[in-house]
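Researcher: Please translate sequence to structure tokens.
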Amino acid sequence: MWLTDAQKIGVALTTFGGLFMLLGVMLFFDGALLALGNLLFLSGLTLIIGPQKTFYFFARKQKLRGTVCFIGGIILVFLKWPFIGVVIETIGFLNLFGDFFPVILTFLRQVPFVGSLLNLPYIRDVADRIAGSRTSVV
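Model: Translation complete:
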């Protein structure tokens, strides 16, 4: 699968957005880094899948609670309530993107070192329960 130049830029923006959000949390919920991470993440997502598909993704009826929490968390971060904003934003993120976790887990299990780590007995059970991907075989 080949990516267009706009999609490549979107992947970079989304990656930097995630890194800025992680850095903002590690630096005791620095509001400026969190706000910048949110802007980069949303603009990168828009460039990857397009503006119309982004709107339809967030506007779907079954994703409404996740959208409200995600956007509400971003607004709280912008209004200088970074801790509460990140907590609400995380709830929204899990509601919006939780369907992708089994796919991500399957991909990570194929990565050489990470796959062997995720297939350890107790870690495998926890990862499967979090992702909801399969039932553990006894």
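Researcher: Any highlights?
Model: The longest helix spans residues 5-26.
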